[in-house]
Amino acid sequence: MKSLPLFHRVAGEPVIVLGEGPAAEAKRRLVERAGGTVIGNWQVGVERGARLAFIAIADPHEAEAAAVRLHRAGVLVNVVDRPALCDFTTPSILERDPVQIAIGTDGASAGLAKHLRLRLEALVPDSLGLLAKSLAAAREALRERWPDAAERRRALDAALEQGGPLDPFAEHGTTAVTNWLRAGQGERAEATRVELVIDTPTADGLTLRQLQLLGAADAILYEPGVPAAILDRARADAPRLCLPHEGPLPGGLILVLRRG
Question: For 142, which of 62, 75, 100, 186 is 20 to 30 Å away at the CA?
Fold first, then answer.
C-alpha cells in the first residue's frame, strides 16, 4: 500500500480547480457535491487558505508548473492523468449518504475503479445510509447498554455480521436499530480463542473466513515467521503479540496464527 485512504472534509472550505474542459468540470462538480467552494485562481485560493487543488490543464508543461507553484504554497494537488505529480488521487465513490465506499487504484486505472464500483452498486442496498444514521442516533443508548468499548464493539460486530439483525447488505427500516436494542440481542459474548494455520505468504491466499476472523479479532497472537502481509489484514487497533506471550489479554476474540 503506497497511499493512506482518508476522507478529507471540504464542506464550506475553498478548493482550487484549475483548467477548462470536461475534466475540469468534473472536478468542479465533485468539489461542489461535497459542499466545497470552487476557486479558479490559484493565488486567490492560497490567500483564502485552500488546502487542496485539482489541476486539469491540457498542456503538460503548464500543468506541471501549476503543480510546482501550489506545492511551494503548501497545497496538496491532484493533476489529471499525471499520477507522478499527484499528492492524492480521487477514488470512484459509491455513496449511500453518510456511507461512502471509495475505490482507488493509486492512479493505475480509473476505469477499473469505476467498474468495481458499478458491481458493488448492485450489492449495497439503498437503506445502508439509513442504517448508518440510525446507529449514530443510537450512540448514547449503545454506550448505556455496553459501557465498555470492547463489549460494545463485539455487540455491534455480532449484529452487523452476515445474517445478523443489522446485516448491512440487507434492507432495513427506520426502526431496525431500536428493535435490535429492545430485543436484547448482542449481549456480552464469552471470550473465545481461535487458531489458524497460515500456509500462504500473501493475503491473497486467505479464505473469506480467515479474512473475517482477522477483521474481527480483539488481539492477534502470532508465531515468528507469519508474514507481515497477513498481519496487516487485522484490525488496526487490535494488538499484535508475538508468541510465546505471557500477560493479560483483552476479552473477546483472540486469534492465534500458526505458521504452516
Answer: 100
What DSSP assignment string belongs to 79-137? ETT-GGG-S--PPEEEEETTEEEEE--TTS-HHHHHHHHHHHHTTS-TTHHHHHHHHHH
Better pLDDT: 190 or 183? 183
| 91 strand-pairing partners | none
* Secondary structure element (H or E) that encloses residue 196, with its range: strand 192-198
Q: Which residues pair with 94 in a beta bridge?
A: 101
> Could you tell me the CA-to-CA distances from 189 to 26, 69, 80, 144, 251 in Å, in that order?
48, 56, 50, 17, 9
What percent of the chain is helix, strand and coil (3-state, nearest 5)? Answer: 40, 20, 45
Residue 250 scores a pLDDT above 90 = no
- Residue 185: the pLDDT is 54
- Answer whether 40's CB lies under 8 Å from 27's CB: no
CA 138 to chain CA centroid, Å, is 22
pLDDT digits (tens, 9 = 90+) for 117-130: 999 999 999 999 99
Output the pTM of the full model: 0.69
Amino acid, res. 140: E
- Identity of residue 18: L
The C-alpha cell of 17 is what? 480547480
Average pLDDT estimate for 220-232: 92
Using the structure block, give the residue that is written with the C-alpha cell 445510509: 129
